[in-house]
Amino acid sequence: MNSARPLGLPHVDAETPAVLVLSGPVRRDVVDGLCTEVRALLEGGGGRVVVCDVGGLGPPGLAAVDLLARLELAARRAGGRIRLRDAGPALRALLDLVGLRFQVEGQTEEREPALGVEEAVESGDPAV
């Protein structure tokens, strides 16, 4: 039996981002620890994106908005970004209301039509 470590660098899957599961209710005393965890995940070589699963946060409020803003700031300072997973319509609307834009899994990017959607053209429309 050989227990020697293989030579070379360890395999890192850069296509699969790290996932941080957030559960609620959001308490002020855990925010700093979560920011540290986001920085550690980004600096650990797991890619430039940390996926934050926000499905367990509960009803959205300003505490959740503050947490997500701080996580995004910590991620940007570490050279990365966060992406939201399982963000409900109420949370997305609240983030939009306060002017925070996050990448959300499962949504098409801005100005990019969904797959299989064709634009209709009216016969009186001028050519572009």
Write a brief structural summary:
It is built from three helices and four strands; from the N terminus they run E-H-E-H-E-H-E.
- Nearest-angstrom radius of gyration? 20 Å
Structural class: alpha/beta
Mean pLDDT, rounded to whole units? 82
Distance between the termini: 70 Å
Strand order of the largest sheet: 1-2-3-4
In CATH terms, what is the architecture of the domain at 18-104? 2-Layer Sandwich
Tell me the number of strands: 4
What does the main sheet amount to?
4 strands, parallel
Overall geometry: globular
Topology, element by element:
Elements: E1 18-23, H1 31-43, E2 49-56, H2 62-77, E3 81-85, H3 89-97, E4 103-104
Parallel strand pairs: 1-2, 2-3, 3-4
Region (Disordered): 108-128
Protein name: STAS domain-containing protein
Pfam families: STAS_2
What does it look like?
- The protein is α/β, with parallel strands linked by helices.
- Helices cover 30% and strands 16% of the residues.
- The protein has a four-stranded parallel β-sheet with strand order 1-2-3-4.
- The chain starts with 17 loop residues before the first strand and ends in a 24-residue tail after the last strand.
- The mean pLDDT is 82.
Write out key terms for the chains shown.
128 residues; alpha/beta; Transcription Regulator spoIIAA; 4-stranded parallel sheet; 4 strands; 16% strand; STAS_dom_sf
